[in-house]
């Protein structure tokens, strides 16, 4: 039975896979699980640098673990002209009656140099053998260090490999286990990310082709990205040498909204969950099989909506606006205005309580050894994913 389904699905998949989409939607997002927050950072300036993780912290419910505070990350080649974060008390994408309006709680406009509830941080601080560079305030170009909060300049193009991040302007309490921002590095500017089950991030940006030539000195040559991280990750280490130096490997949460994955597909932008919802390979994550087309010569607009029922939609639409209030019907129009033939949809696996108690390995890249349950969920996800490609 499932073999036949897979064959049918594969046939359909190969027919549609080459087309790019303007909307990628995931349903059933959120599960009951846990991650291990960092408990202690030791000798961070020396080669004996180590980190320890704490006991598991549990999460559950719609969009979890991405219902937690999230920081917003950008990698070049990219120019950011607008950013906005919205929240709503209750909003369900396919239900126009139960939907409340959205309020803009953070905003950046490059041309007008407006920055509200936004702090630009970047990895330009002290280097550490196990943690990499610490966060600092970003200077006006996004990637230099500044001594205090600085608005990103207009025409803020950053080239390949360069990154900065946006946090809110709400300061963290001091570093510590069980405190609002967890354990983090000494001396960094520490701010909360953006919170809530029901939230929306909008962007106006450009992703021009890299003008420098390719070389081995680049890690991400011509691979721009906009993504969300559990805000604990950058405050300890975004690219640690030791998996215990960040909660990432234990699954505290990442969602890639628009990400170019490799040189072959540098003009395709993928949406990907890096959570353990039915998978064991966190690095690969749960990726949509269809991609957005990167427009290298025009302004792009779009973003992501996390609704109250665990529907997550990444989209590109030239109709995206950045008003201080976005009515529920306008948000519905924004996503429903994208025709179904330009939509990719898939359903994430349902996780039973039993399967989430699986043994997480805490070494290396922190991958889970697949047990029978997660393997079956993975298979089921693949099958339903293929089916959903045409049953939208
Ligand atoms: C990570 O932490 C666990 C528990 O504290 C420890 O057993 C393990 O050896 C650590 N792994 C690394 C790579 O340091
Ligand atoms: C809700 O959507 C339905 C079907 O699309 C439509 O007929 C109805 O007018 C909408 N109601 C509101 C309040 O927008
Ligand atoms: C944070 O941003 C809001 C909105 O722009 C502003 O009203 C508030 O004063 C800012 N708070 C701080 C501490 O900068
Ligand atoms: C960004 O600004 C810093 C100063 O804050 C400067 O040192 C650095 O060279 C600039 N980076 C680029 C790519 O221009
Ligand atoms: C700033 O963003 C935070 C994080 O989501 C939010 O809790 C807060 O209400 C926002 N501040 C303002 C002034 O909107
Ligand atoms: C590039 O990334 C896409 C999306 O993850 C993947 O399907 C494809 O196999 C990758 N290509 C190469 C050559 O690695
Ligand atoms: C850049 O070079 C790397 C190898 O160093 C290669 O993997 C990648 O595909 C190249 N990127 C482009 C866009 O050609
Ligand atoms: C999707 O359908 C619309 C109208 O039915 C059509 O105009 C558009 O070209 C189609 N797009 C694709 C990618 O097939």
Give the cofactors and ligands.
2-acetamido-2-deoxy-beta-D-glucopyranose
Strand content: 25-35%
What is the overall pLDDT average? 87
Question: Would you identify the regions where 5 or more consecutive residues have pLDDT less than 50?
Answer: 1-5, 7-17, 354-392
Any idea what the radius of gyration is? 20 Å
Total individual domains: 1
The portion of residues assigned to helices is 10-25%
Instruction: Report the strand count.
Output: 23
| Overall geometric form | globular
Please work out how many helical segments DSSP would assign: 4
Distance between the termini: 22 Å
Major sheet size, sense and barrel closure: 10 strands, antiparallel
Counting helices, strands and paired strands, the structural category is: alpha+beta
* SSE string: HEEEEEEEEEEEEEEEHEEEEEEEHEH
